[in-house]
Design brief:
Layout (H helix, E strand, L loop, with lengths): L10 H27 L2 H9 L8 H12 L13 E4 L5 H17 L1 H12 L5 H4 L2 H33 L8 E4 H18 L2 H10 L5 H6 L1 H15 L4 H32 L2
Parallel strand pairs: 1-2
Helix pairs in contact: 1-4, 1-5, 4-8, 5-7, 7-8, 9-12, 11-12
Length: about 270
């Protein structure tokens, strides 16, 4: 059966398309999750638990930067005084399964974007439909940059802070594996999705829901929201919050620029 045009599709037809989008995306995630199962040792030992080592690349870079700025070893990480433990009988099995699913989602994100593009493309102009590759590439690139930003910046700063924070020498830090991995997953995926803001603004502008003037008018409120988010995802110190806030503000500014370009192109088309 030939695929219906957008104007010929009923509400139920749209729901059917959405259902198959979810089915295919879920299948892709599960297939990739199965693949990651066979390299789970590397994923856990090298990637996920990498920030628990003082030799992690982020700590070494911060230490070198501290020395170059003349702060001696003030921000050098020399030890991680905590242990990660499992307190539930089925805990490690659950962690393995959901970590593989999360890895499958991250690796399968470009495919999910492709499915989303096929779902929304009937509502776009013919010229815009030709930009599928650009959409997939740019969206995937932003997502993976966000994931790397979360992994190499937010996760190490969070781990270092909570590992060294203590209310008394009597209390020892012993984190559950669920808590630790949950923090890692939340940080990387949240950053990856936040980096999609320019793409989201692009489509909101195309739909007429957002304008450059609107984004600029509420810039100060956006700054407040970004500061709050930075305060939530980073340790409570000024340096960490500034390091995280600056890229987020740049992404917001890029979103405003993209919105301006979209409006300018629409004005040309409308004459």
């Amino acid at each position: 059966m030939a695929k219906k045009n957008l104007n010929e599709m009923s509400f139920l037809d749209h729901l059917e398309e959405l259902r198959w989008l979810l089915v295919r995306s879920t299948a892709a995630i599960l297939i990739l999750a199965t693949f990651t199962f066979f390299v789970s040792d590397y994923i856990f030992d090298v990637i996920i638990f990498g920030p628990t080592s003082p030799n992690f690349i982020t700590y070494r870079l911060f230490c070198d930067l501290s020395n170059q700025l003349g702060f001696t070893d003030i921000i050098c990480v020399t030890e991680m005084p905590f242990i990660i433990q499992n307190v539930n009988m089925e805990g490690q099995v659950n962690v393995l399964i959901w970590t593989c699913v999360t890895a499958g989602f991250i690796l399968g994100f470009p495919f999910i974007l492709w499915e989303v593009w096929k779902f929304i493309s009937p509502a776009l102009y013919t010229k815009e439909k030709k930009n599928a590759k650009l959409f997939i590439f740019s969206s995937s690139l932003l997502f993976f940059l966000g994931v790397l930003f979360g992994y190499f910046l937010i996760v190490p700063m969070s781990v270092n802070f909570f590992a060294t924070f203590t209310i008394s020498s009597v209390v020892q830090n012993q984190f559950s594996v669920d808590s630790y991995i949950g923090m890692v997953k939340t940080s990387v995926i949240a950053c990856g999705l936040f980096f999609e803001l320019p793409i989201i603004i692009y489509f909101l502008t195309k739909l007429g829901l957002v304008t450059p003037e609107f984004l600029r008018k509420y810039w100060k409120y956006a700054v407040i929201v970004i500061l709050v988010v930075a305060a939530i995802v980073t340790p409570p110190d000024v340096i960490s919050q500034v390091i995280v806030t600056i890229p987020m503000l740049l992404i917001y500014e890029v979103s405003i620029l993209i919105s301006k370009v979209v409006v300018k192109n629409q004005n040309k088309i409308n004459g």
